[in-house]
Structures are given as C-alpha cells and as structure tokens.
C-alpha cells in the first residue's frame, strides 16, 4: 500500500492517494482543490480502477471531485448518505476561498470489496466517515476532520454535534491499536496512542 499526501487549496486540505499495488486499485480521498495537481499525481499509478472517497461534504473536501472524476474515469464515488443534503446544497461554499462545486460526481454507496472498512463517524458533519485500510502488512485510518493532532473537528457548522463527535472518536478511533496511523483532513498525521495520551479534548 502506497500513500501520497497532497495538501491542497487555501485551507491546506489533505488529499490522499492510496494505491493498492497487488490489485491495482487507486483511491483518491477528499480531492478538495487543485484538481490538476491531484490528477497529475494520480496518473503516475498503473491503476485498473480509480474511486473517490469523501470523508464528508464540506466544500474544502469536495471542490475538485468533479474534475478529478472526469479526468481519471472514476465510476465510483463514496459519501456518507447523511451528508447528501450538504453535498447538493448551493450554500455549501466557503467565501472567498471556495465557491460551490458545480461539477460534482454522482455519489452512491458501494462495496469496498475488502480493500477498506467504512467507519461511520458523525459529529463534525452528519455523514462523517472514516476509511480504514489494512493492506500488504500496513494499516492506515483516514479520519477526515473528526480528529487532528492535538485537536478535534469543529461542531459549530451545519449538522455538527459535539456529543456525537466525541462518541465517534471514542468508539471508532480510540478503541483501535495504539500504533494505528491516523491520516487527518488537515495538518500532520498522528497515531491512536499519541492522541489517547496527549489530545486535551479526549485524554
């Protein structure tokens, strides 16, 4: 399993490229901005199939999804169902940085076919989702904006809920092995063990 981190846009949203060499599957997680950059990096991989995974529907995580899907021939895009109203809303914008993502791929639930496990993590948004990969002896948990190094996601935006966020973190993240890498929506990666001990919001 190869993981490439591409901070994109004015909010430095982490877009991840996850390539599973043995099955030649490429996953583009949260293509928020700078579509040409993401596309250029993605085309380096000899992928038989490429899919887009969205941890949630905030504008800075979906803004480049349409262009990326079109350029890479993506036929599958995942988004938690509870975030569909936000995904489809013309108000899903962050001025002056992100206008409405008018070119968005159709989303649908799909079977990860053993490549990863879907974790439902509401709180930052109603449909917040994590993706846990265990492949080729490596593990990686892509958590979106649910948790950060030393912090947690905002809950003052549409659909946010602090109690749900903390419950999601405790149930889906802190319950896992200490050395599990957490790849977050912004900032540096961390581990379950580090956050369990040092994160002031949950320790």
Task: Please give the structural blueprint.
Layout: E1 2-8, E2 13-20, E3 25-29, H1 35-42, E4 49-53, H2 59-62, H3 65-72, E5 76-78, H4 84-88, E6 116-120, E7 129-135, E8 138-144, E9 147-148, E10 151-152, H5 162-173, E11 181-184, E12 190-191, H6 192-198
Parallel strand pairs: 3-4, 4-5, 8-11
Antiparallel strand pairs: 1-2, 2-3, 6-7, 7-8, 9-10, 11-12
Question: Brief overview, please?
Answer:
With 203 residues, this protein is α/β, with parallel strands linked by helices.
What would you note in describing this structure?
By secondary structure, the chain is of the alpha/beta class. It has 6 helices and 12 strands. It has helices spanning 35-42, 59-62, 65-72, 84-88, 162-173, 192-198, and strands at residues 2-8, 13-20, 25-29, 49-53, 76-78, 116-120, 129-135, 138-144, 147-148, 151-152, 181-184, 190-191. The two termini are 31 Å apart. α1 runs parallel beside α3 (65-72). It has a single domain (2-198), classed as Ribonuclease Z/Hydroxyacylglutathione hydrolase-like (Metallo-beta-lactamase, Chain A), CATH 3.60.15.10. The longest helix is centred in the C-terminal third of the chain and has 12 residues, at 162-173. The protein has a 5-stranded mixed beta sheet, covered by helices on one side. Strands 6-7-8-11-12 form a 5-stranded mixed beta sheet. Strands 9-10 form a two-stranded antiparallel ribbon.
